[in-house]
Amino acid sequence: MNTLLKDVFGFFKFAEGLYAGIRKLLVPPKAYSWQTFIYMSVFSWVLSSLATGYVKDIIAFFGWLFLISGTAWYTTQDPLRVPGTFMPVGAVITGFLVSVFAFGNQEEVITPRIIVFWPTISALITAIPEFIEGTDTDAKARIPKPQDRQRIIILVASSMLLSCWIQFYFVMDHWFQQYPSLQADTFKRSTFVVRTEERLKIPQNGVVILERLQPIVEEQIDKTSWSEVEKWLLDAKQRVGTLGRGVIQKNLGKYEEKDLWRVEPRVANTKSGYILDLLSIWSGPSSNPRGYYLRKSCRIEPVAVTSNSGNKIPVAEIECDRASRLIPGAPPPQQ
Question: pLDDT-derived band of residue 155, with 50, 70 and 90 as boundaries?
């Protein structure tokens, strides 16, 4: 019975301590405290959700200011340092809030610009108190001591360097999204780009161009009279070029790299007919100084068919390769 009573009293004592800790955290000890700023920010956001127009934006603006001020105040009371630096963890949190406030938007809360500026803003927030001396009511500007200036410069400079590397990551990510053919290239000679995924064996956009172009060319040539096909092949450069630009615009319109692809034909005679090579040529950056291109070969031969009058007339029959082939170097000259 005594043990049970001890356990009950122990539980109530634990609950009382927990309540006291929560009450100390949530109830401001005085009107001028960090809790007051946090509550004012929550109150401002509630009011902004009920307002409209420019009034909503003004209230939300002050809500952000209250949140940043309250967070900065709370996290600097007993600062926990980032390992290896004199930067408080509170400055990192406050820097993130300032970055979201400055560069965020309603459509996308976390943007690349927020992540890029976060380290630099955090470093500047850490450095600001070094230029101020005195209390909250009697503060004045001062020049930091020489030994403090060095660590401030190192902290701000290293944070700016980190921001530059983060920005470089987002730039590379944007390039690979808008120029996916770069993923088929090699970065062995690069000193700052490391491939983390398996390299594509062939640029997919170049393949798409030839795969979409092939049925259009087949439709214009197959079962067409041989004389018309020979005229078509004489004007193949202009015809295939026009068809290729249409295919590129239709299938690669969402990529910025669409302007770096072009389509050209190559026509060669054979004993029984012609070879029509459809080339999708990459003119963008490449580890190969001479670039590369993709080729799909089509064999065009005449076959005799019987017309309605009973006469045999020659028409064209076309057969193209099933797969495109990647060829490094410049395309062969047109004949």
Answer: confident
| The two structure tokens encoding residue 185 | 């290239």
Got the DSSP string for 122-165?
A: HHHHHHGGGGEEE-SSSEEE-PPPHHHHHHHHHHHHHHHHHHHH
Asked if residue 192 has pLDDT above 70, the reply is no
Beta pairing partners, 139:
134
Beta strands in the chain, from DSSP E residues, in sequence order? 132-134, 139-141, 261-269, 274-282, 292-306, 312-320, 325-328
Among residues 98, 99, 101, 90, the alpha carbon closest in space to that of 34 is found at 90
pTM of the entire structure?
A: 0.68
CA angle 176, 241, 180 (to 5 degrees): 5
Residue 208 near residue 244 (C-beta atoms within 8 A): no
Q: Which letter, b or e, does each residue of 70-105 get, where b requires 16 or more Cβ atoms within 10 Å of its Cβ?
A: bbbbbbbeeeeeeeeeebbebbbbbbbbbbbbebbe
Closest C-alpha to 241, from 290, 280, 202, 274: 280
Radius of gyration from C-alpha coordinates of the chain: 35
Q: Which of 323, 304, 326 is nearest to 315 (CA)?
A: 304
Letter for the amino acid at 144? P
Paired strand residues for 263: 280
pLDDT single digits (tens) 97-125: 888 888 877 677 788 899 999 999 888 88
CA distance 126 to 157: 13
Question: Cα(13)–Cα(18) distance, rounded to whole angstroms?
Answer: 9
